[in-house]
């Protein structure tokens, strides 16, 4: 009896979803091959899934979002797949595409070489601030940050995207309180909060009118927004503060600095020929195969070149990649030409929501502007923990495979796939 491994690298939103989809829909539909079984092995540096969406509020208040609401153990979520699922706590360090193996350093420091029949790269991204990236020290990082907030008089947040906007709002409300109904700014703010945006507006996916509304809500909490201002560096001082160097040569000294200026793809273990100019995994934008990596290698999530990023995109991307995985594995098992491909189409509609404090927010869904109370209802109440956290970990969103129509003549592309 031999075992073939479908290897998933990454245990965040993309990796968790891909593993569940493969166990529920891909493996059960594969042709039977005498003496061969298929398992899913998931590799992730942490034993816990991190609900990164809640990072801006969890970082600021353990009362509003305690540890049990942002960290969830991974292995129990796959209890239904006993004997078909294997979890390895560790980090991928090298991929041998010719030999179809991935080298992994486990949490205990041991070296493993894991062979694969199919590989799904879902390693995601790392944020510049440790406040928004899962690590063994995340809980103590939050404790230290919250302790520092108690005495902070000036907090600078770098980055005008959702994480920066949300974090600035959470900090300002926690320190300055909720504004009264008619006030435009806090009467006696305890802390000055500055949000620095490199662009001419915040929340770049959203229209300018929505960005201006976000600025109004932030102002009511005591947040000052600086536009068209790049951050060159942020250097700690001897007294525990941080000096933020701006692109125009000016500096700002802050008690605390939160870097929410962007993300870095977790792709350093991959050879350069598999990456694009942004160090994301270069993939076929339609099939999500990593063609340069050889047969049966796919990418899903923010580490891939095909996407502009975001959790919501995974509902479209994971079924595509995993359906094509099933098609390719079927051809591998039977020796017949692969069937038609399933194609991914990026959803480029205006779609982003950003809570601002615990009572307000801005955003749009499917191109439609949302009123503030809807942003609060969808995300602002608890950053979607009650609605989606456990179902995401358990893979409930992929219980059904979903219907799709093969694209005409696409199957001809697969004749050379092995």
From TrEMBL:
Domain FAD/NAD(P)-binding: 6-308
Highest taxon of source: Eukaryota
Annotated keywords: FAD, Flavoprotein, Oxidoreductase
Record InterPro entries: FAD/NAD-bd_sf, FAD/NAD-binding_dom
GO molecular function: electron-transferring-flavoprotein dehydrogenase activity; flavin adenine dinucleotide binding
Gene Ontology CC annotation, any one: cytoplasm
Family: Belongs to the FAD-dependent oxidoreductase family.
Protein name: FAD/NAD(P)-binding domain-containing protein
Organism: Pleomassaria siparia CBS 279.74
